[in-house]
């Protein structure tokens, strides 16, 4: 049985309360809120015995369907074996989800805490200081992201797609290794669309769960009869590398979204331009364009991306 309690703390003469949680016998103290989204919130917590810090993801479920989606996220994290993909430490459910009587349950997922924050945090800091990563460092970081994504695409018994890959969903470990996080949108990669109804359902799901500026073209305009596969993630990967190389730490479609213009039209046009002051090589720009092909059937699979990235790393090393 899961229980939620409160502890009264006195610090520097102030009366404070900190939420206490017990998850499968382990007691945690909530220290701070890290992030909040449409479906969940993430708190920084500390194990009351070991004093180890963790990230606690709380997903509020208004129905059994919501709860099943949250449990599916946990199950998928268990299926993916990669040093570059986040792992579940523990999980539990409290309450009962019932949309009829407006009752909710909450799914707790205990995750590693990465004090270096996200790749987006890191890029923002560098952009403010005009401290751009050397090209070799960008590529080493990027190939780690690719290796994590390969674990999704090689998952058994069938390939998985992350479907919300972006710089904010990549954390940096203590050793500055990239860790793919937030599998809330992850799903079976290969989907056969048969008819307008199925196409509209996938389009609606993408609008709900896939960040607009990293979303692949085929998820904006879903054809009535088509196959959607893991190469949706390759488009997002191209947007990530673009952001890593951008002086403003933004992906190609961030400025369009910020101006209020149509991101869908911009994505479907496939018109990618690099800033005049881009400090990275033509080879790097070509690698980005290799992934940002609007026709998903012309877009590479992750193996080709890793091969090209390693070739570029080798080319840089040969110059030293």
Automatic annotation (TrEMBL):
Residues 28-313 form the Protein kinase domain. SMART domains: S_TKc. Keywords: ATP-binding, Kinase, Nucleotide-binding, Serine/threonine-protein kinase, Transferase. It comes from Pseudolycoriella hygida. This is non-specific serine/threonine protein kinase. PROSITE patterns: PROTEIN_KINASE_DOM, PROTEIN_KINASE_ST. One of its GO terms (cellular component) is Golgi apparatus. It catalyses: L-seryl-[protein] + ATP = O-phospho-L-seryl-[protein] + ADP + H(+); L-threonyl-[protein] + ATP = O-phospho-L-threonyl-[protein] + ADP + H(+).
């Amino acid at each position: 049985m899961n229980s939620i309690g409160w502890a009264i703390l006195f610090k520097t003469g102030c009366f404070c309360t900190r939420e206490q949680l017990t998850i499968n016998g382990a007691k945690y103290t909530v220290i701070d809120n890290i992030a909040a989204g449409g479906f969940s919130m993430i708190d920084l917590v500390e194990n009351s015995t070991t004093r180890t810090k963790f990230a606690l993801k709380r997903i509020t479920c208004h129905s059994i369907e919501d709860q099943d989606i949250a449990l599916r996220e946990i199950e998928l994290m268990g299926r993916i074996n990669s040093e570059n993909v986040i792992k579940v430490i523990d999980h539990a459910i409290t309450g009962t989800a019932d949309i009829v009587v407006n009752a909710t349950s909450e799914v707790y997922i205990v995750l590693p805490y990465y004090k270096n924050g996200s790749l987006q945090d890191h890029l923002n800091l560098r952009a403010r200081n005009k401290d751009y990563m050397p090209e070799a460092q960008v590529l080493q970081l990027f190939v780690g992201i690719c290796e994590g994504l390969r674990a999704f695409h090689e998952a058994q018994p069938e390939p998985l797609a992350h479907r919300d890959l972006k710089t904010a969903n990549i954390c940096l470990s203590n050793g500055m290794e990239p860790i793919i996080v937030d599998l809330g949108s992850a799903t079976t990669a290969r989907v056969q669309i048969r008819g307008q109804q199925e196409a509209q359902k996938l389009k609606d799901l993408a609008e709900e769960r896939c960040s607009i500026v990293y979303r692949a073209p085929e998820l904006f305009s879903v054809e009535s009869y088509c196959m959607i596969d893991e190469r949706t993630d390759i488009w997002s990967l191209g947007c990530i590398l673009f952001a890593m190389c951008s002086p403003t730490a933004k992906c190609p479609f961030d400025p369009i979204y910020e101006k209020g213009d149509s991101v869908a039209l911009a994505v479907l046009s496939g018109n990618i331009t690099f800033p005049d002051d881009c400090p990275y090589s033509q080879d790097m720009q070509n690698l980005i364009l290799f992934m940002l092909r609007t026709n998903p059937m012309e877009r590479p699979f992750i193996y080709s991306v890793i091969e090209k990235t390693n070739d570029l790393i080798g080319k840089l090393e040969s110059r030293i």
